[in-house]
Task: inverse folding
């Protein structure tokens, strides 16, 4: 009985972690969609001077893994992002997306969790200095009027939006994967046609080749890191 309870507990914990990562990704995808609508933005504490070396989706995974919070915190964070966009959409641009994501997540966790880390610990997770994080938090609090208001209806609507965004993203990725496989298949068929052509033409030139050695070429189509690599492998046989 105890073994069964432990198994159920581990499955429940695993399910919670998956749900948390899902909502964290949904948050970053939501912010990304808002930032894509804004070509220009005003200078603020949210805006980075240069592009961030980590993608926004990878950043969302980082928040979901290391903040040690439940999925509802990221739903609240998305609600805060929505409020911020209503206050002033000019804060949003690709250079401000990461800082908006981490600041909204921090405020959401502090309003939703009983057990918290220090700001210095969160700063390490977010990839910013402690002073910078304090400035971000203070600025966001002032914009919100030092209040976080997320009613149950808003919470349900925002969560549904995040799930919808995640589903559409997965559908898009599935379509891209299908196109990639079709492209790979076409390339393979072209290679086979080239092999047949090479084989046919080599039969006419075999009489003029040296009797002591011969060579042939074979096309190889492989995949490395989801990218198709086509190379020619030469074989030489000598006596």
Result:
């Amino acid at each position: 009985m105890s073994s069964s309870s432990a198994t159920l507990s581990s499955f429940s914990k695993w399910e919670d972690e998956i749900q948390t990562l899902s909502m964290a990704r949904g948050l970053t995808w939501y912010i990304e969609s808002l930032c894509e609508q804004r070509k220009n933005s005003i200078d603020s504490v949210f805006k980075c001077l240069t592009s961030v070396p980590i993608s926004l989706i990878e950043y969302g995974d980082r928040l979901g893994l290391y903040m040690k919070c439940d999925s509802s915190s990221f739903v609240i964070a998305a609600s805060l992002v929505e409020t911020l966009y209503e206050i002033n959409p000019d804060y949003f641009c690709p250079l401000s997306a990461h800082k908006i994501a981490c600041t909204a997540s921090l405020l959401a966790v502090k309003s939703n969790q009983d057990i918290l880390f220090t700001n210095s610990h969160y700063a390490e997770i977010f990839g910013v200095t402690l002073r910078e994080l304090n400035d971000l938090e203070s600025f966001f609090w002032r914009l919100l009027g030092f209040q976080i208001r997320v009613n149950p209806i808003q919470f349900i609507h925002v969560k549904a939006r995040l799930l919808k965004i995640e589903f559409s993203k997965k559908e898009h990725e599935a379509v891209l994967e299908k196109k990639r496989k079709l492209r790979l298949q076409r390339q393979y068929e072209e290679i086979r046609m080239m092999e047949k052509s090479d084989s046919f033409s080599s039969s006419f030139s075999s009489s003029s080749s040296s009797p002591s050695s011969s060579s042939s070429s074979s096309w190889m189509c492989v995949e490395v890191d989801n990218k198709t690599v086509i190379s020619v492998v030469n074989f030489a046989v000598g006596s």
